[in-house]
Amino acid sequence: MGGRPLATNRFTPVVTPQALHDLVPQTPQAARTVEAARGRIQAILRGQDDRLLMLVGPCSIHSEAEALLYAQRLAETRRRWGGELELVMRVYVEKPRTTLGWRGFLLDPELDGHLDLNAGLRRTRTLMRAVNELGVPVATEVLDPNTPPYLADQLAWACIGARTVESQIHRVVASGLPCPVGFKNGTSGSVKVAADAVVTAQAEHAWWTVGPDGAPGLHLTPGNPDGHVVLRGGWDGPNADLASVRRAAAQLSAARLNPALVVDCSHANSGSDHTRQGAVARSVLAHLAPGGPVRGLMLESQLHGGRQPFPASGQAPLFGVSVTDACLSWEDTQDVLAEAAATVRALRCAPEFDWREPVA
């Protein structure tokens, strides 16, 4: 038969979780950052801390040097506005694809199509540890169910994305993660699938995965009490407006769930226009009030604004510019964070907000 020959199935051994932990061990400073941030995020989600959770950082990591420079700047910002904001850095290393494309730093750290998961795991764990050692907590999206044994001890917050929120295995994985987990509404805009995911993740489950020594085993999970919904808009439009927030909170309350929400200012909420993220954030801040369901915001942010085409083979990418979704610049990000901090300060003198008003 003519045409291109079929590729041969291949199997490449991968380092075990324990071997990776031995190679890149957790440090006391990184562990303190992780544990303290998990507790603070939990308190914010439960309404016990009036600060605002801010999940900010690149759409995807493609350079350790860029990520560390961003983290250093974020560490200074945390010192400036730590009384109002819990700043957590997006260190996203896996990319969900609608069809085809670069699958992220974890699998292809050289951005050249020569897949090297072992190098990606080592470099990712090293980077996450370095960010934590700066006192900056780490957030990421859990895409491959096999990654948590390698990286979960570095995470203060995790996300299950819009494409996988309906996946049973991702809900089960979330039930065993040791940190708060945000479930994005579905790509259609459905909040119900995210609420269902929160319910599922609260329960105990059995998760077939690998143990520290790399041997397959059954992980019995305790359930995750800190699942919550992330509003990111959908095919039917944005859902960052007050009416949408109230509807989502009402759905969660009707399901006897904590109505805590994080609003993603990117994706469908901004019409995939990075320059509108600030406007989305400001619109949410305008209807923020004590006792309301919005507990956090998410911004896709880089050193420089916009995006660049994915680099051709042998070509170095521009420094500090996203190679995936377009991001807000550092300067514009700082403007949003300053307004968020000012809003929190102002709200400390405001009357409590009753979000349980009738909604259309």
**CATH topology term:** TIM Barrel
Roughly how many Å is the radius of gyration? 20 Å
Q: Which quaternary structure do these chains form?
A: single chain
Low-confidence parts: none
Derived structural class: alpha/beta
**CATH top level class name:** Alpha Beta
Strand content: 5-15%
User: Separation of termini?
Assistant: 61 Å
**Fraction of residues in helix:** 25-40%
Most strands sheet: 8 strands, parallel, barrel
Give the tally of β-strands: 10
The tally of helices reads: 10
Pfam family, one: DAHP_synth_1
EC number: 2.5.1.54
GO molecular function, one term: 3-deoxy-7-phosphoheptulonate synthase activity
Pathway: Metabolic intermediate biosynthesis; chorismate biosynthesis; chorismate from D-erythrose 4-phosphate and phosphoenolpyruvate: step 1/7
Task: Name its key features.
two-stranded antiparallel ribbon, 8-stranded parallel β-barrel, alpha/beta, 10 strands, transferase, 360 residues, aromatic amino acid biosynthesis, single chain
Give an overview in words.
The chain is built from 10 helices and 10 strands. It is of the alpha/beta class and 360 residues long. The strands form 2 sheets. The protein has an 8-stranded parallel barrel, surrounded by 8 helices. Helix 2 (28-45) crosses helix 4 (117-133) and helix 9 runs parallel beside helix 10 (330-347). It has one domain: Aldolase class I (TIM Barrel, Alpha-Beta Barrel). Helix 4 (117-133) links the parallel strand 2 (85-90) and strand 3. The protein has helices at 17-23, 28-45, 64-81, 117-133, 148-151, 168-176, 192-202, 242-254, 277-286, 330-347, and strands spanning 52-57, 85-90, 138-141, 157-160, 181-184, 205-210, 216-221, 227-231, 261-264, 294-300.
